[in-house]
Design a protein that fits this description.
By secondary structure, this protein is α/β, with parallel strands linked by helices. Helix content is 19%, strand content 34%. The radius of gyration is 15 Å and the shape is globular. The N and C termini lie close together (10 Å). The structure holds NADP nicotinamide-adenine-dinucleotide phosphate.
Length: 167
């Protein structure tokens, strides 16, 4: 599996259950990369999406401990074990962890690649993820040229986990 995230310079990812900012080009990149694939998210991230709607043309898997939770267009799972048995039906390369903080931090050890969009600013987040650059098993394998969009400068990067945890 893989993860895809947008971070600020402190690995902040969100505030008040919203994204820190919107980068039109990055949203297109996210869509292109995940279309037709499997996206895994926490219940709070699902609720943060426009209209609270699941992503179109993707298999949406949502994690919650609430056994009564249901959502149109989403497969609901209630634990890590439940998630892994659901994911057994899909090729691992096709699975993208898409947030938020709790879900990234729990699942990145199982990911092969991390697609990290890095915005070069402090956007005062209340939700952060672990600093991938500081983890011993992760290596930067690709970085785009510097980009500018919606008043922000950023780069796209891809990190590879050299010790992927089996699931
Ligand atoms: N920058 C980015 O790329 C990006 C991407 C996505 C999201 N975000 C941001 O991240 C923030 C949300 O992140 P968050 O950490 O607050 O929430 P989250 O990770 O989206 O969802 C957390 C919820 O997932 C469920 N959950 C967590 N661990 C579980 C487990 N082991 N088994 C079953 N369910 C589990 C729980 O749902 P219940 O409470 O229902 O039990 C928990 O409250 C928002 O600000 C959002 O905009 C940023």
């Amino acid at each position: 599996m893989n993860f895809m995230v947008v971070v600020d310079q402190n690995y902040g990812i969100g505030k008040n259950n919203k994204l820190l900012t919107h980068l039109t080009d990055d949203l297109k990149y996210f869509r292109q990369t995940t279309l037709g694939k499997v996206v895994v998210m926490g219940r709070r991230t699902l609720e943060s999406l426009p209209g609270g709607k699941a992503f179109d043309n993707r298999v949406n898997i949502v994690m919650t401990r609430d056994l009564s939770f249901n959502h149109e267009g989403a497969i609901i799972v209630h634990s890590l074990e439940d998630l892994f048995s659901t994911l057994a039906a899909y090729p691992s390369d096709d699975v993208f962890i898409v947030g938020g903080g709790q879900i990234y931090n729990m699942l990145y050890p199982y990911c092969r690649y991390g697609y990290i969009t890095k915005i070069h600013e402090d956007l005062t987040a209340d939700t952060k993820i672990d600093v991938i650059d500081e983890l011993p098993n992760w290596e930067l394998v690709w970085q785009s040229e510097e980009k500018e969009n919606n008043g922000h400068t950023f780069v796209w990067t891809r990190y590879e986990n050299m010790m992927v945890k089996a699931y």
